[in-house]
Amino acid sequence: MAEETPTLPPIAILGAGSMGGAIARGLSRSGLATAGVTATNRSREKAAELAGLEGVTSIALEERATGNTDAAAAADIVLVGVKPAMVPDLLREIAPVLRPGTLVVSLAAGVTIETFERILGDAAVLRSMPNTPALVGRGVTGLAAGSRADAGAVALVRRLFETVGTVIEVPEAQIDALSTISGSGPAYFFLVVEEFTKAAIGKGFAEHEARLMAEQTFVGAAALLEASDHDPAELRRQVTSPKGTTERAVAALQDAALDEVFARATDAALARAKELAAGA
Questions:
Q1: pLDDT of residue 4
Q2: DSSP class of residue 4?
Q3: By the 8 A CB rule, do 184 and 262 touch?
Q4: 3-state class of 77 per DSSP?
Q5: DSSP 61-108
Q6: For residue 75, what pLDDT is reported?
Q7: Cα distances (Å, whole numbers) of residue 237 to 217, 224, 240
Q8: Which value, in Å, is the radius of gyration of the alpha carbons in the chain?
Q9: Is it the case that residue 109 has pLDDT exceeding 80?
Q10: Alpha-carbon span 246 to 256, nearest angstrom
Q11: For the Pyrroline-5-carboxylate reductase catalytic N-terminal domain, which residue ranges apply (predicted)?
Q12: Which of 22, 124, 149, 209 could bond to 145 as cystine, CB 3.0-4.6 Å?
């Protein structure tokens, strides 16, 4: 008989915007957050988006000014999802009410573990970098442990993020680099689909036909890749008949130096991540 996945302790998500909201939805779907999830947002409108989720209490700070401290005081895991510039003030607000042993997890891009540990004192801190496919339970989350987060803390937070997809544990020094691949990666993918759709329209297809072909081709190819034992290069070769149309198209793409384009793109994203970490 398969072992049941252990349930999760009380969780607070402070600043449950798009990413925090995705995690709240994943936790609700999983049924693992039996001790409850409390999510905070500044406005009633944002809070209302999460109000109907099973097991989730959604608080609007404009109605309850103490919502962040109330949620943090009652939680064993606190996820910090506010904008990076707002993080220090929020940490100073919640620091006095955190219970001993509470795990604090950053969702904020560019804010270091050192910043969290300096403000929070003895709290165990982890830094995460989820991505937007978490909204449909297919996210990739990078997870880095702070100096006070032991193996048990990492395992617990890993279980939390596995409710919205896959988790990769990395040292903090690699979190920004990971963000340029999995964090920003969905945008690269959507851009390729967008341009592929334009190419189809240019070939005379109606917009809805072009979009359907482009989207479903990429969705289908991703499903094939996931189901296959072969790597992407081998699957590409299987589609590329010698002297055929695909071979000619792939050659044109390779002539455009896509490897250099993606290297430049991810380098640019990494440079910006370093600027954010420096407060620029």
A1: 63
A2: P
A3: no
A4: strand
A5: TTT-TTHHHHHHHT-SEEEE-S-GGGHHHHHHHHGGGPPTT-EEEE--
A6: 97
A7: 17, 14, 5
A8: 21
A9: yes
A10: 15
A11: 11-110
A12: 149
**Contact call for residues 109 and 115 (beta carbons, < 8 A):** no
Report residue 37 CA to chain centroid gap: 18
pLDDT value of position 275: 83
Per DSSP, 183 falls in state I
Q: What is the mean pLDDT of the chain?
A: 93
What are the tens digits of pLDDT across the range 214-237?
999 999 999 999 999 999 999 999
pLDDT at residue 280 is higher than 80: no
H or E, element range at 13: strand 11-14
pTM of the shown model: 0.89
Domain boundaries, the chain: 11-173, 185-277
List, for residues 23-43, the tens digit of each pLDDT value: 999 999 988 999 999 999 999
CB 28 within 8 A of CB 54: yes
How many C-beta atoms surround the C-beta of residue 228 within 10 A? 12
Distances (CA, A) of 249 to 244, 245, 252: 9, 6, 5
pLDDT tens-digit series, residues 117-146: 999 998 999 999 999 899 888 999 999 999
Name the DSSP letter for residue 184: T
Q: Does the domain made of 11-173 have the CATH classification 3.40.50.11540? A: no
- Bridge partners (DSSP) of residue 168 are 142
> In this structure, what are the phi and psi dihedrals at residue 87, rounded to the nearest 5 degrees?
-60, -50
Nearest to 103 by CA among 29, 154, 56: 154
* Tally: H helices and E strands in the chain: 12, 8
Query: CB–CB of 107/141 below 8 Å?
Result: no
